[in-house]
UniProtKB/TrEMBL annotation:
GO terms for molecular function: metal ion binding; peptide deformylase activity. Binds 1 Fe(2+) ion. It is an enzyme of class 3 (hydrolase). It comes from the Bacteria. Keywords: Coiled coil, Hydrolase, Iron, Metal-binding, Protein biosynthesis. The active site is at 133. The keyword Kinase does not apply. This is Peptide deformylase. Removes the formyl group from the N-terminal Met of newly synthesized proteins. Requires at least a dipeptide for an efficient rate of reaction. N-terminal L-methionine is a prerequisite for activity but the enzyme has broad specificity at other positions. Residues 155-187 form a coiled coil. It catalyses: N-terminal N-formyl-L-methionyl-[peptide] + H2O = N-terminal L-methionyl-[peptide] + formate. The gene is def. Pfam families: Pep_deformylase. Belongs to the polypeptide deformylase family.
Amino acid sequence: MRICKIGEEILSRQCEPVKPEEIDDSFRAILNEMFDTMISANGVGLAAPQVGIAKRFFVLMSDDDVKRVFINPEITKTSAETAAYEEGCLSIPGESESIVRPVKVSVTALNENGKRFTIEDADGLLARIIQHENDHLNGVLYIDRGDKDFKESIIEKFKKKAEKAAKKAAEKAAKKASLEAKLAAKKHKGN
């Protein structure tokens, strides 16, 4: 499963709710694949748009090592108390920034079986991940909540990376086409 990177349009989209009838075995297989992708990338959370799906769900595994699924989550309450924490994102690899968010959060969502659950006053890393991943469902990245100059430098950095990768791919395709043309000409001569 490929993780979308900053600059890809899907990361700035408002996601659509998951319909109850969509929560079936094939949906649960996607959730399992998301957990595998998140764990192999050393992440603690992964939202559907990060893997190219514009739907409202995410998976996470906080410091208690419990795998949690949030489908159509709604944050119902946040604490007035806030705290700064260094956040990173699998869609912005290698970067991090101190982001201020509420310390506690209450959330209601559906689990992987379509059953509604509520977590009251989640705190610590769990609260942080819930807010970060929920932002993804609204097309918001953590850099949208931080320093404006940092955000602009990150956007420019990843834009250059994408342009360099596209140029390299085009050169590789041109070399392949040239080699194939030479082989075809050689084969034609031999006939």
